[in-house]
Amino acid sequence: MTCLHLLLTLVFAVSLGTPVEIQRPRGVPLTKKQFYEESKPFTCLDGSRTIPFDRVNDDYCDCKDGSDEPGTAACPNGSFHCTNAGYRPMFIPSSRINDGICDCCDTTDEYNSGAKCENTCKELGRKEREVLQKMAEITKEGFLLKQQLIEEAKKGQQEKQSKVTDMQENKKQLDEKVEALRTVKETAEQPEKEAKERHLKAWEEQKAAIRLEKDKAKMAETFLELDDNADGFVSVSELQSHAELDPDADGTLTEIEAQGLMGGAEQVDTSTFESVWPKIKDKYHSESQAEEPAPVETPPDEVKEPVVDNDSEPYPEDDISEEEDEDDEDEDDYHEDDDKAQPTIKTPEKTHEDEEAMPPYDADTQALIDAAQKARDDFEEAEKALREMDDQIRNIEKELSFDFGPDAEFTYLYSQCYELTTSEYIYRLCPFNRVSQKPKYGGSETNLGTWGSWSGPENNKYLLMKYEQGTGCWQGPNRSTTVKLTCGKETVVTSTSEPSRCEYLMEFTTPAVCQEPANIDPSPHDHVEL
Amino acid sequence: MGLLSVVCVSLFFSSTFAVDRGNFKTCDQSAFCKRQRALKPGQSPYRALLETLELSDSRLTLQLINDNNKVHLLLELYRLQGNMTRVKINELKPLKPRFEVPDVLIAEPPTEPLSVLSKDDNGVVLSLGAENQRLIVSARPFRLDIMEGPEVLLSLNSRGLLAFEHLRLHKDTLDFSLPGVEHVYGIPEHADDLKLKTTDGGDPYRLYNLDVFQYELYNPMALYGSIPVMLAHNTQRTMGIFWLNAAETWVDISSNTAGKTVFGKMLDFVQGSSEKPQTDVRWISESGIIDVFIMLGPKPSKVFSQYASLTGTQSFPPLASLGYHQCRWNYNDQEDVKSVDQGFDQHDIPYDFIWLDIEHADGKRYFTWDPHKFPQPKEMLQGLMDKRRKMVSIVDPHIRVDSGYKIHNEITSKDFYVKNKDGKNYEGWCWPGNSGYPDFTKPEMRAWWASMFAYDQYEGSMENLFTWNDMNEPSVFNGPEVTMHKDALHGKWEHRDIHNIYGLYVQMATAEGQIQRSGGVERPFVLTRAFFAGSQRYGAVWTGDNAAEWDHLKISIPMCLSLGLVGVSFCGADVGGFFKNPSTELLVRWYQTGAYQPFFRAHAHLDTTRREPWLFGPENTALIREVIRQRYALLPYWYQLFYQAHKTGMPVMRPLWVDYPKDTATFTIDDEFLIGSDLLVHPVTEEGSRGVTAYLPGAEEVWYDVHTFQKHNGAQNLYIPVTLSSIPVFQRGGSIIPRKDRVRRSSTCMENDPYTLYVALSPKKFAEGELYIDDGHSFNYDTKKEFIHRSLTFANNALTSSNLCPDCNFLTSSWIEKVLILGASKPSKVLLKMDGKETPVDFEFDTSMSVLTLRKPGMNAGADWTLLLQ
């Protein structure tokens, strides 16, 4: 350990091929050779102290900055320079000198460890040049593609911008049209409404008259039925035969109760029966049709008439038909249950319904309705067109609002999706939208995150995309994905991984991140030294 | 059993963050514990039949009779060499033989003669040979007292709690009284303080190896391992009780001073009227015999050597395993392993081992590799070997029941599985689903298991692949209390008899496999979760599935201290916490603590975010790098301490009272600890801490801050202001610690590096230390005496290295590059005397801290030399 070589003779080729010998302490780069002069005491590069030159590389750390031991592992913070002729020169921490591991391709870091290192610089240099060349080609082509992308994006952006402007102009006209049509519609609806109300009222009156008529007929019929002895009077005893009329529901209709129903009289004739009828008609069971239920009042909302006052609903027809379906179903169910309990024939109801169906509108009213309907249709159509236009404008504006890069070079990725199939999953990246994962052999898709932001380093944030708030993980965070962009001719997802539970990493190549190729010779070797 | 798996899964993946106590028994829910605990003192039915006394040279036998049921017990008493007494009690004529635990004692303990001093109708007095110790056997009721002079050191059955249940279930109980003792320690594993608490009004401490999901802190619940050894300590004496029983065991502790205030104790003292403080301990086991070793000390170091003479010492680990270990459930694939490995180099952080958890195997079939994620294991291992680094893969004892799996088929065909009570193979649920459990209690099964680690059996393994045994309690997801049914059968014994030793056997067989694969040359490294008395012989232990919480960081100290007291020095806790994500501050503090604990491994649950040391910004990367480097610089000291532990049984990480047994202020300290005798560590374990108060023990001592070299007096509470970079560590004045300050990528890379000696002078300008060097990985230190062991002494202004093992032979190329003498005065000249020559040595003197630095004396680390300060 004390017999270390202080100086290292370096032989390497300069570009002209003339061998040159340059002597300097081991591990010192040429750029710092001037600080290590054998004839003079050495001053630590941080200026902290000056030591005799024989303490440079003597395997004992004298300088706090490690500068006195560039070629040994004595200082914890030192660094060793390997020339790596044929490849790239580099610095390694001095703790890697003689640690038994070959770090420098020129083997200079392992001069006293017994490690058998082979000089691989030439090979590495060749490989690196190949890689660099390939990369350069890719970069070059990629950069060209990027220029096209930028062109297209700019064009597209302009087109969209002008489209939006045009559309906004059109929208203004549409707005006006909608307002105009609304007025037309409202104007047509007023007379329509009045005419329909008139019609409805007339029909209500007519219905009332019919009902009264029917009641009277029923009353007469009942009177005849009750008047068992046909003497033209209904007596107390005759009434008593109808136990269902029992007012206190104790099962028997007593004489007194019957008399009560008959207003205290022993018997009534047809005219006085009119005052008895209202008290009994609800409970009375006809003798001929004992099972006949009391007439059901058809609820007015069951009346099927064309729905006309539903302007505010966007899709009135659909809605109505659904409601009807549901109602029908409900009724069917209800009847089914009912049938089992009480098998009744529904014909009488039908008759009632027929009788009570509203008569069609008269020609005048119908004309008003038709006119109003047309006004409504026109209005709705115009409004729908307006809505569609609004949507289109919003979409374009949204697209225009995305950060597609300094030159909009990422625009082309918008509304595209790219897939990668692995042994288990199909991964899908839809830039600026979402990332997802689907098992290859069936199973539902998992959201690995929706578009969040560009999240590359400060100097180029466009190298990473962050997708966040995907499907939640059990006992963990919501899934998220980082997409790493590298320069490539093709736009492809090249790999995916899950470095941490539920945090995905996707590698993605695109010409959009290709940098302008530098105009220098990519040959890397030795230029630092010269 | 299939149905139960649902229950188990919900238990295991319960979303609440705390142990579900309902899943684990309390004493009241354990029939035998409840029944035996209900016994009240002073009603002992046992009587010694003195007429049956027989005394051979070193063995005394005597029958005891239970007057209630007339059952006879046989008492055996042995005086063991090294100041120990063994008491065995068994049924004279058991209906069914009781289990006696094999494979824990390293040999039948050598005995010493006993002699009867006197005998009458009431009892017998025996001489215990040493000193003036006597053993008094009282006949009615039966009790034993061990006396030294006029003092009772320890009494057995003084409370009359001895109980043997005689029928099918073989419960047994015995009580011990420790007069003059207020501090008892040990009986790990519990997530509790170092000093054991009294258990009156609560549950006893439970010893029953269990896979506890998200364990709670500061309670006596059972955890993954059990060592039934308790230490009792006061200023006069340290003693130990080793209860050799592998069945479920509960330990009750009560104290007559526990309820007293300091003032009350003082009043007693002043008035001189007090009863003597006393601790009473009751051991209750579900089956087996009573087999107790009473280790009489009297010094702490003596108790450690006594216990070591019974169960062996800490295995001497490969040096690399004392470095830093990087683990995670899971490193996903070979690519991941490679990039983590490169990450360490990119950030210039040393590490020695990277670990693969259960996902590395093909469908949790241990001894195999996932063909997609790890298609080229040898290529991966070779990559690590090229960097002089190593790997650990997990091999658990539950075996996937799968006819396409070689291991399962061989175990089946050799009939090596544990059986259920009906004699069929016992099956339970674990990671692979339905699993069998090899019967590790069978020697032939262990031999077969060991053979599976041969390079041609464990395909893809290489010499830098080591092993991790997890889930070896054993964990059975759908079993009672997440473990095996007690009526499962190991040959003729029920699982209840052997439960606590199952895990030991797994690690034993695995370590044996690693030794065998190298032809007996290389030392093994095996980490285990479950353990028992004797497990120290097979490798390292960690404290199981902790959590990323400050309290879990704190508890790592008493948990490892308790293990160290009972033989297991190679202990650590998952750095960062296994469950949950640590804050950056907690992670940094945990690295700082873990770097100063024996087993130093970061580990994390599958659901946590990645936490390799460089993922928290450059400042925190620098903090973590710094403390890992401190660890590596101190590896020579750690290694020497493990050698000492291996040779003597002295714990590596120790409570302060071990070295300062008369200083009562140290008796309950468990937020700081000693590494060996010479380094005192007080880790920062409070969030947002701005300072800690460390107790520096020893009225005669001085302590040097290892970072600033500032000197502090002993026997004081020192307030130390801290920042996030502070790790309060002190070197004892009077000690010499060798370090390797050139930290490299891995410990192996540092093999030939030079040493720096840190000589910390005592107030009397004296210091001593040792230096141990060997190849770091083989048994040659043992089989061929290939090591260097030197004594370093500083006295009379001369530092001398002398050989502690003249007949040893080992050559090192390491040398002494620097000597720092702390607390020195400035010499006029420094001379190196070596090989009869004197050469001057350059030096520097820092007057502000009185530090003398000798520059490059340059002698070989194995040589004789003296450095003279003039």
UniProtKB/TrEMBL annotation, chain A:
Coiled-coil blocks: 150-220, 365-399
Region listing for Disordered, in residue ranges: 283-359
Acidic residues: compositionally biased ranges: 308-336
Segments forming domain EF-hand: 214-249
Residue ranges with Basic and acidic residues bias: 337-353
Keywords: Calcium, Coiled coil, Disulfide bond, Endoplasmic reticulum, Glycoprotein, Metal-binding, Phosphoprotein, Repeat, Signal
GO molecular function: calcium ion binding
Pfam families, per database record: PRKCSH-like (PF12999), PRKCSH_1 (PF13015)
Pathway(s) per entry: Glycan metabolism; N-glycan metabolism
InterPro entries: EF_Hand_1_Ca_BS, EF_hand_dom, Gtb1-like, MRH_dom, PRKCSH, PRKCSH_N
UniProt GO BP: liver development; N-glycan processing
Signal peptide: 1-17
Function of the molecule: Regulatory subunit of glucosidase II that cleaves sequentially the 2 innermost alpha-1,3-linked glucose residues from the Glc(2)Man(9)GlcNAc(2) oligosaccharide precursor of immature glycoproteins. Required for efficient PKD1/Polycystin-1 biogenesis and trafficking to the plasma membrane of the primary cilia.
Subunit-structure text: Heterodimer of a catalytic alpha subunit (GANAB) and a beta subunit (PRKCSH). Binds glycosylated PTPRC.
Name of the featured protein: Glucosidase 2 subunit beta
TrEMBL record, chain B:
UniProt keyword list: Glycosidase, Hydrolase, Signal
Domain spans labelled Glycoside hydrolase family 31 TIM barrel: 315-641
The keyword Signal is annotated on this UniProt entry: yes
MF terms (GO), sorted A to Z: carbohydrate binding; glucan 1,3-alpha-glucosidase activity
Keyword Aminoacyl-tRNA synthetase appears in the UniProt entry: no
Every Glycoside hydrolase family 31 N-terminal domain range: 76-252
Pfam family for this entry, one: Gal_mutarotas_2
Segment forming the signal sequence: 1-18
Domain Glycosyl hydrolase family 31 C-terminal: 649-737
GO biological processes: carbohydrate metabolic process; N-glycan processing
Any single Gene Ontology cellular-component annotation: glucosidase II complex
PANTHER family in UniProt: ALPHA-GLUCOSIDASE, NEUTRAL ALPHA-GLUCOSIDASE AB
Family: Belongs to the glycosyl hydrolase 31 family.
Protein name: Integrator complex subunit 5
Protein species of origin: Cyprinus carpio
